[in-house]
Amino acid sequence: MHQLKQYWVAEALEKDLGDPTQPESVMSFKSVMELDEREEFPEKDVEWLYNWNLHHYHIPVEYGGELKSYEEFVAFVRVLSRRDLTTSITFSTLFWSGLVWMAGTHEQKQKLAKFIKDKHGAMCLAYSERAHGSDLVGSDVQATKVPGGYLLNGEKWPINRATISGISVVLAKTDDSGGARSLSLFVVDKSEIDPAGYSNLPKIKTLGIRGSDMSGIRFDNCFVPEEMRLGQEGAGLELGLKGFHLTRTLCAAFSLGSADTALRTVLKFALGRKLYGKTVFDIPHPRTTLVEAFLDILVCDCVTIAGARSFHVAPEQSSVSSIFVKYFVPTAVEKVVQNLSVILGARFYLREGHDEGIFQKVVRDNAIISVFDGSTVVNLHALILQLRQMAKYRAKRNAATYEKLRSRLESRFSLEAPLPPCERAKFELFSRGCDDVLQGLEISLEHLYGLKTDASVDAEVLQKLITLTSTVLEELDAQDEFLASSGFEYGHDQSPESFELAKKYCTLHAAAACVHMWVYNRKILGGFFAKGEWLAICLNRLLMTFRPSSGIIPSIYIENVAQELLKLDRENKMFSIVPLQLAQAQSPEEKTHAASELQLQA
Ligand SMILES: Cc1cc2nc3c(=O)[nH]c(=O)nc-3n(C[C@H](O)[C@H](O)[C@H](O)COP(=O)(O)OP(=O)(O)OC[C@H]3O[C@@H](n4cnc5c(N)ncnc54)[C@H](O)[C@@H]3O)c2cc1C
């Protein structure tokens, strides 16, 4: 078991699912590819996960479940996602229960916990409409007030798990005048409404996650009792957007799972295929592409883990922390997958053969992650609206702010620090200018300078880290100065230039997350992590987006990363800053029921 307890669930799940390259494993590449070819819903796999009690980890402990930390959550979703995004995304619609844990009454919470736990209940989120997409305020679905409840009318589409789920969380208009307070949320339990009042729309054919229950739902004068409304009437948009804070961060786990499979599959190909008397891995260009893919995953790890932990440490910053994760990670992983595809050459285009064609499934499935739960542009737009305030807040930091920042940074980044429970009621639509990660960069820079007298740190690597971190800070200062003096536009008509600024801010944020992660975990994540060469290359790569390469990275650093990549592959460990043990091929007798095993160890 990993020394960090929050990774035990992921490791146990991984062990019980088994090695995905072995056809007899649960969700093996062979079986998920067969389902995908048939576009078939992964019913048995989903039921296996319920029988494993994975749904308990969607219910907070105070309501009888096992959900303790979102860092733990992200880790097990990643393990699932490395096998099959169809099942992982299907199962994770349960994540919408977060809306009820955030805003439900005690009765609603108890009822939902029972539905999920005792009935193996599934749910879906019904926000989107054919005509409106990202424009949630434009929704046409109406909830008309009648005695004791509401009459729902209209259609939601495209909705994942709309047909095969017992509960639909529906965003509907309760006030015709429009505007931010015109929408309300309803937790519609299909077992408690008249079946004549709703119908499911036909399955939609999708590019990826082909076996998903992708459809829609239509309501025709469907009576829903008042008790099914979530929160106050008119609070739907606000709650709906706060719900995205949770799920946007979760989406990164889908991406990271895909990235692991993409890299592992292509690495296996590169090590096995011989050309010109050597392996493809020995040819400098593909070797570098593979190393860079690994490094990009490490950066995404730092961003994701920090984002997941921030729900517990700084829930009031969730509006920005979730954007950083949702913009950066899926976009970075899309590039990783695209770059890796080049190494497969002709085999990239062939759906059979190499590892059952799982890479090609990753390409198709992975493409949806940056679209749903607020597309890349929608996230950047939401960040643009907060950037100026963050720059102003940063300019006003003082000794007292720094002390609080120091303490939050340590809780957020030190993976050994216990996390407090997540106070979802503290989620805010705007972070009021706070962004600990970039606003605390000077604190980690100070730590770096402090390490100059530490004999355990390589002086050359440290100097490079100081130089690169100082460059990140310079870029941030310049950007903040520009923002402070620029005009501010409300609304949707933001300039393309402001989107570029937001992207740059996310890149600087990713760099800062990596620095903090190293500073606070140098001694606990193993020798490769501690040495910091990976960090120097990652910072250099991130900065290269807007500064030409300074030639600061010696080629030996890159070679050392290549050796670590090979080592993790040989030892069958996750490509991650937390390289947890992946499943080995095992006999059925070795398989345990993980939930009971974990309870014994806890
Ligand atoms: C596989 C799949 C699963 C889905 N699952 C669900 C689900 O479970 N529940 C659910 O409610 N929905 C779901 N959706 C819907 C998904 O969330 C929507 O597709 C998404 O909200 C975007 O809407 P749209 O594609 O209609 O794009 P539109 O909103 O029509 O936008 C079109 C384009 O306009 C531009 N644009 C939009 N907004 C902005 C902005 N603010 N600033 C700048 N440019 C902008 C962008 O270029 C954008 O791509 C799913 C979709 C798919 C494909």
Please tell me about this protein's structure.
The structure is a single chain. This protein is 52% helix and 9% strand. It has 602 residues and is of the alpha+beta class. A four-stranded mixed sheet has the order 1-4-5-8. A four-stranded antiparallel sheet has the order 2-3-7-6, with no helix packed on it. The chain has a two-stranded antiparallel ribbon with strand order 9-10. The protein starts with 7 loop residues before the first helix and ends with a helix. The protein binds flavin-adenine dinucleotide (FAD). Flavin-adenine dinucleotide (FAD) is lined by residues 124-128, 133-135, 158-160, 206, 214, 368, 371-372, 375, 377-378, 381, 492. Flavin-adenine dinucleotide binds next to β1, β3 and α12.
Total strands: 10
Radius of gyration: 24 Å
- The chain-level mean pLDDT equals 95
What share of the residues lie within helices?
A: 40-55%
Question: Which oligomeric form is depicted?
Answer: single chain
Which key phrases capture this entry?
602 residues; four-stranded antiparallel beta sheet; alpha+beta; 10 strands
